Each structure stands twice: as C-alpha cells, then as structure tokens.
Hints:
The structure holds two protein chains of two kinds.
Chain A lengths: L16 H6 L1 H35 L1 H16 L2 H7 L1 H4 L3 H25 L3 H9 L4 H32 L10 H10 L3 H29 L1 H6 L1
Helix pairs in contact in A: 2-3, 2-6, 2-8, 2-9, 3-6, 6-8, 7-8, 8-10, 9-10
Chain B lengths: L1 H10 L11 H33 L3 H13 L2 H10 L8 H24 L3 H9 L4 H35 L8 H9 L3 H36 L3
Amino acid sequence: MTAPPDDCLARNEWLCGAYLTSRREILWDAVVQHLQLTVVSVLLGLVLAVPLALAARRRRWAAGPVLGVTTILYTVPSLAMFSLLLPVYGLSASLVVAGLVLYSLTLLVRNILAGLRAVPAETRQAARGMGYGPVRLLVAVELPLALPAAMAGLRIATVSAVSLVTVGAIVGYGGLGNLIYSGMNTYFKAQVLTASVLCVVIAVAADVLLLLAQRILTPWTRRRS
Amino acid sequence: MNTLAAAWSWLTTPAHWSGDGGIWNRVGQHLFLTVVCLLISCLIALPIALVLGHLGKGGALAVNISNIGRAVPTFAVLVLLILTPIGGHGEWPTIVALVLFAVPPLLTNAYIGMREVDRDVVRAATGMGMTGRQLMLGVEVPLALPLILTGVRIAAVQLVATATLAALAGGGGLGRIITAGFNLASTAQVVAGAVLVAVFALIVEGLFAVAQRLAPDRFCGEGSG
C-alpha cells in the first residue's frame, strides 16, 4: 500500500497549484460554459433591448409599461427567476440564458432610453434641417450619441451576468458556478476559491474590454476630455 | 398550465404552511434576515457615507465599491464563507454575506446624495454660522434623503435576493422551499417557492416605493432645523 500523498490537495488548502494543473480541463470547460452563457444572454438582451428602448422613446405611452415591466423583472431574485422558468425550459442551458436575458433587459433598456433622451433637441433639429430622414436621423445621429450611455448599461449588464451565471448551478448550467456548487458539497476549498477568483477575473476582463470598445466606438468623447 | 395548477395546489395545501419547514416559518426567517441585515448594513454604511460625503473625501472608494460588489458573485461569497471557520456557526455566514452585499449600494447612494446637495445652499448655511455638525445633520442629510432612501431600497431588494440564494448554501429562508423542490424533483414546489420569493421581493420594493413617495413631503413639511 502506498501512503496517501501529502500535497495541498490532500491537506485541502485554499491555494493549491496541484489543483490548477490536475483539473485544468474541468476548469477550462467551466470557463468556456461561463463565457458562452454570458455572451449569448447579453447579446440576446441587447437585440431585444434596442427595439424596446426605441419604442419607448417614439411612443410616449409605451415608456411607462416598458420601464415598469423591466423593473419588476429586475426585482425578482435570481434563484426565483430561474425557478419560475423551470416549467418552460426544464433543466437546460436555455433556462439560464432566458433568466439572464430578462435581467440584462432592464439595465440595457433603461440606459439606452436615457441615452436617446439625452440627445439635444437642437442636434435633432439641425439634422432634420440638413434633410435627414427619420431612419438616417436615428442611425447617424441619435444612436451614436446614445452610445456612451448604452455602453455603460452594457458594461453593468455584462458584469452582472457573469456573476449571475453562477446561480445557474442549481440546474447544472452554471459555468464556474457548477464547480463552486460541487466544491461546497465536497468541502473542496481550492476548487471553490479558484472558481470564484476566475469569475471575478472574467467580470473585470469583460468590463475592461467593453470600456476599450467604447473608447474606440466613441472617439469624440475621448477628444473632449 | 398544468404546472401552474400544481403549484397553486401546493400553495393552498394547509400542511405546507405550518411546521418547521412550513411557509410561515420560512417567511419569518426571510423577513428576520432581511430586516436584521438591513439594520446592520445601515449602521455600518450610512455613518461612513454621510461623514465622507460631508467632508468630500473618499469619493472614488464610495463610488467604486458598488462596481466591485457587482463583479463578485453572491453565491461564491456565500460558499467561501461556509468553508471558513464562521461556516460552523449557524446563520452567521448568511448574515455576513448579506451585509457585505447590502453595504455597497447604501454607501454609494448616500455618498452621492451628500455630494449632490446644492453647493450654494451649503455656502449659505456656512455663512449663517452653522457648525459642520449642524450643516451635516440639519441641511445636507435632509436634502440627501431621497438618494439615501434609494440606497436603502436597493439594499433591501438585494438582501431579499441574497437571502434567497443563501438557501443554496444551506441557509434558511424562502429559498429553502425552492431548493427542497429541486431535490424532490417537484417542479410544482419549485414554482410555488419562486412565486413566494418573487411576491416577497415585490412587496419589499413596493413598500419602499411608497415610503419614498411620501417621505420628502413629510420632511419638507416639518421644517426641521
């Protein structure tokens, strides 16, 4: 019989290099799932949020209901949101994506709408005076000017989504959350800490990337400051 | 529709409301956790935020702490706390995690509220010979009250959500009904628990919305100071 190895895994230490090397594939798979869930949810949220925000901007009566419903959705705690979607999606990745889309909608609609509302009336009139039609006005003037506020919303939505994906562990699709969940049940300190730190790293990296994208997309805001 | 009917019949079964794991007991735990942790968080965050806001110092920290709070997954912190020595002490990991996530919105909003008080008003108050203490308590805090209350409202909703998640990590509260439902593979119970949590959260949000609408008028009418 061989003696049990006396490494950091056996001693269940928080920081463990052997964990990183021996579970590299599990960690990688979890990170990939985490990123997929986040990216798909935020993109879907964005696709839905832009028309909603535009509708709320164009039709005054639509603004109240759109903001009201998204605020109510945002108030529902994440675990309850995923649970309410269970009869619709079952234990699937779609359930997690649907829940995250509903959360990001609130943040995105609110920020895009704020950005559109902040476009000065003079600017709009000037564009109209130069012969811009409604579509060109929207695409070439209003949306670019709303971009900084929209990007701020996108950053918050993305960072929140990265953190909320972990709750998806309840249905088995939680990316790094799965590792945290199983690590909790087996009292595996290195796994919980490593997965948690990776979550924060992903969130910060996503935030920085979006900030860079915003700088590139809106050069005029940079020049002013 | 079938699931909804099943969830409804789960909710209307008297046996599910009484007893140790009954709904009333879980509502009580949830309410207790929310109220106690809101009080603790306010006691920690508000004095710091009000003094920092009054002095105009530490702004970067007060504003950025909210972003940091958003990037760190609640679930990860709950599990990490359970694996630390305080994990063995009943509800303490839950309470610590709840307070950690309620403090950032309180700090940020109260700080911004204090800084956004009209500088002319502050100068006028100083010119009238008010001491720093009088200025802070008699002028700045009343004027910052709407934003301070917004912070309390966000924190309260956050607390309800975090307390729900605590069930995933073995804590008490309404989330337990959901996690128990998952363990029993009972979609009806999961949905019923989720409805209870969502209603609880919406009631908390609604109460604060009403309080916020009433508060400013009342404070103006009293003519304090």
